[in-house]
Amino acid sequence: MSTNQSRRDFFKTSATAAGGLVLGFGWFSSEAFEPGVLTKAAADTIDFNAYLAIAPSGIITIYSPNPEIGQGIKTAFPIIVAEELDADWSKVKVEQSPLDTKKFERQLTGGSGAIRHSWERLRKAGATARVMLMEAAAKKWSVPLSECSTSKGFVMHSSGKKLSYGELATDAAQITPPTTVKLKDKSNFTLIGTSVKGVDSKAILTGKNLFGIDYKREGMLNAMIQRPPAFGLKLKSFDATEAKKMPGITDVVSFGNKVAIVGKTTWEVMQARKAVKIEWEKEKDLESSADHDRIFKEMLNSTTATVHRKDGDIEAAFKNAYKVIEAEYQCPFLPHSPMEPMNFFAHFKGDSIEMAGPSQTPQNAQNQIAKMFNIAPEKVTIELTRMGGGFGRRLNTDYAVEAAELSSIIKAPVKVTWSREDDTAGGIYRPAVRYRFKASIDKAGNITGYMLHGAGMNAGNATRPDNFPVGAIENTLIQSNDHKSPITTGPWRAPITNFLAYAEQAFLDEVAMAGGKDPIQLRMELLEKAQKSPVGKLTYEPERFREVIKLAADKAGWGKKKKGVYQGFSVYFSHASYVAQIAEMANVKGKPVLKKVYAAVDCGIVINESSAQNQVYGAIVDGLGHAMYGNLTFKDGAPQQDNFNKYRLIRYNEVPDIEVHFVKNGIDPTGLGEPALPPTGGAIANAIFKTTGKRLYNQPFSEQGATLG
Amino acid sequence: MALFNLKINGKTYKADVDANTPLLWVLRDHLDLVGTKYGCGMAMCGACTVHVNGEATRSCVVPVSNVSNATITTVEGLSETGTHPVQEAWDEVDVPQCGYCQAGQMMTASALLAKNANPSDKEIEEAMVGNICRCGTYHRIHDAVKLAAAKMKK
Ligand code: FES
Ligand code: FES
């Protein structure tokens, strides 16, 4: 495949003082320029935001702009470049770039979009550098370019001569970057699709200071912040007389509705914190979980829902139905519980501020902090650290902004660390949601009408209006209501779909049963219908859906009687990827016990097999753990669980066997950090039903008799 | 405040701290040994696991005064260069996702293997159940413990 470099892919080279080649390219450049011929003046104003440097020593350095959170991006990006470059992977180094919004447009982690966004540009960058190295060699040897080839960090001539990339780098810097490059035929990939170990592994395994919480600076103070203990309370007054006298304490200050305790060391701050006397007062409603149950009912019975999608005539479908099936599904609030609690370093210097820490959206943090101090965004520098998990929590910038504010008040460099209790009880949670489904079927068991009504607690639109089976049914109605709660909510790994998928997939099983159809058969029929005669807008590809279903069914032996094994099926499309899962359970003295989960995944081309497997296993374990145990309840606005003694996370002995298969279709890569999570809850709920005859309508499942391990 | 001479990773470290300070925070804030992680502060997650006289110990709940004469090993002391069989196995199996829990996981595993060169699946489970991995790398942890055991036999 040969592609023209559009202006946004313009490449620029330079040689460094030490020699070698530095290739700058527009990794995430926006299309700020009008298309047309690029003048020299325009070229000079383009920001070359990503760099690929080849040193005379042969070491290739790729600067990776996306924050690493455990999704493997810091390894995946350079694999793509190295593939097209034909580099020797053992000579490739990766460095994390600091936040630079001028240079990087999409410097965030979230939405499983990083690879999708940069796939083509990274390939072109590698291919461009490769051609330049070949041209440099051809010139040196005075041979035609067509007689040159590359392999593992060398340019080779048909005569047997060869030169290493390091030897050619300085000369290559003199070559004008080509305007068109030929990308590799995907069938010739030698690095993409193999298993490559994480580039930070060694540092992680020897305990290096990679994470924000490890960050340290000369003269840095440590702080903890007491935030309101319940959603709806605000600060009335505080008395820090005792606390200020305690060893190591340098300051106790309040800002917003918070009291910050500042001192030399974390432990001293933790002790002094207990000695601060704080009075809180009511500002908003103090909601309890029982209130939420009531509010859900009111919302689902209200006649003022926001309609998101309507096909055909749902009322007529229900009226003419052979059978109508109705069900409601509910999930609780969930904290993200990353292993590394929130933290951020800030050093306010009057007209600028230096920040360092773990953030999924450093650019938002930069803008908010700049606004708070009324300074230009460039005056806010953010060093990005590795993140000890995030799961969406670090898409919020609250913990970075408050560190900045505190530093400006105490006029000192300070790191704010959240305790586990702070992290759990001061969260930006997955919203609690309740869904009402209603479907009509005809005599043959075909779905004629489908309604989904979502009710959320600060969920915005709790539905996804175009989700399968919408598009395959003549009459549909998708609508929602939302309750404005003082409890803060935000994205949680696979936002909304992390629970909606379970509800939809469990309900589809109910409908299949009512119509006397096998669950997979029902879905296959619907997908066939969506392909042949779609109703309204179709956002998924029925063919890819069917492929993952077939693969999962085949691997798990769906429908083939296995003695004592009960299977549940679920399939989901999110972040442009398709994942089907089959859970297998045993009935142990009347209790459903999960034994195995099969997953079939279509995320297009797999970049790094090892990391992709790890992601899918992790997402299944995550989906399973939270479906089984995750439950954050409230009493008078206060979270009732704040540490792992009360808030249960899945453990080593509770994970089932997992078997993951990827569809090999050569399609450009799509999301993988999230898509394997949504189907898990549904597969398990459907398997529990098969095992016990009991349908679980609420999460967490453990509170309804399901066990693991 | 009291002065402690702590024997960590074969070296002696001086720390002038309150006697009640948990070993975790002495390591992290005073001695710059930040490989040992804070996760819960109440012995529920295992992120802070170190060896105290060879025993896997949750350093977040051990006052420094309790270990003033003990031999302490942290992840930095497994081997600085990553050549301890457990580190090698973790690398070969490519265990980490975010990586935050892995120092604690390896310290628990290495204490187990030091005592029991050939642990059964049940014994591995009993040892590892106290270490949470939020990223869900449990399957790889299992494989890595097995691989480390095999390496140590050689
Ligand atoms: S931090 Fe010590 S066990 Fe969690
Ligand atoms: S690797 Fe992220 S918590 Fe274990």
From TrEMBL, chain B:
Residue ranges annotated for the 2Fe-2S ferredoxin-type domain, each copy included: 2-78
Keyword tags: 2Fe-2S, Iron, Iron-sulfur, Metal-binding, Oxidoreductase
Pfam families attached to this UniProt entry: Fer2 (PF00111), Fer2_2 (PF01799)
UniProt cross-references to CDD domains, sorted A to Z: fer2
Single GO molecular function: 2 iron, 2 sulfur cluster binding
UniProt key word Metal-binding: yes
Record-linked PANTHER family: BLR6218 PROTEIN, OXIDOREDUCTASE WITH IRON-SULFUR SUBUNIT
Protein name: (2Fe-2S)-binding protein
Species in which this protein is naturally found: Runella aurantiaca
